[in-house]
Write a structure and sequence with these properties.
Elements lengths: L5 E7 L3 H9 L1 H7 L5 E4 L9 E9 L2 E14 L5 E8 L7 E13 L2 E12 L2 H33 L3 H32 L3 H11 L3 H21 L6 H22 L10 H18 L22
Protein name: DoxX-like family protein
Length: 308
Amino acid sequence: MKRKPIYVEILIGSDMEKLWNATQTPDLHSSWDLRFSSITYLPKKENEPQHFLYKTNIGFGQSVQGWGKSAGTFHAEDGSRTSSLHFGTDQKMSLIKEGKGYWKYIQKQDKLAFLTQYDYKVNFGRLGTFCDGMIFRPLIGWATALSFDVLKRWLEKNEAPASQYLRFFSTWLISFLFFFIWTYHGTVPKLLFQQPEEVSMTQNLLSISVRQASSIVSAVGIAEILFGLLWLFPINKRRLFGVQIMAFPLLSLSAVLAEPANLVHPFSPITFNAALFILSIIGFFQSRDLPTASSCKRKRLGDNDVYL
């Protein structure tokens, strides 16, 4: 089966020299591109391509280091530019073995179309090919698209890439926390081990029978699980944070009205909800106008370029 090269395109409101400098200067390039932690140019010999070394941190103190060279640049008469690249690594732990690709800069009225297309060979034989197609290629394509949007926002809105990534990843970290909290509280104390305290509080608050209270607790548990799952989807997280900012004070008030002893309980829902309320406020402001891979065009119709 023929693999498809990775293609990413985005429109950027910038002048050509500013975009060229941000993408061709090693320190600036590594600041916005998630695929590289550092890029170091090697001394350039006359009439030879520009060689460089790159490093990508993958966590737990490990990194992938590789080599690259600019295969050439071309400035067309219409003002567009192209930069070709050849890259690879000798590290056996790397899934990518060797690859080629290009960047293009095309003037479109008052904006620039910045695009890339690249492909690569993989290590580990059929297993590497399978892992690449199922996991790595979609992931690196997503990382490329997210990086392009970070670059766009940096040039258009002057927000530093580091600040954008801090907001992006902290928002998702908080989102995973709320996913765990809502699904855990919906599943464990409400559905799997329906706690008598949950039923008792519901019964006291609504003045209903035990059986009715038990049914309501189960329904609330299902609702909490569904709400928790929403945190995993690539939707507007700011709306979810806004819902929680309104919900947590009401949940605290309900807990006190249902059982006044909660005010002096060692694991009081009051303090728990207060912490989540503050975290929701932080998430609400952190999640404003986050960079997103969805702002990029990911397919190029009719493009059958093969590099390797």
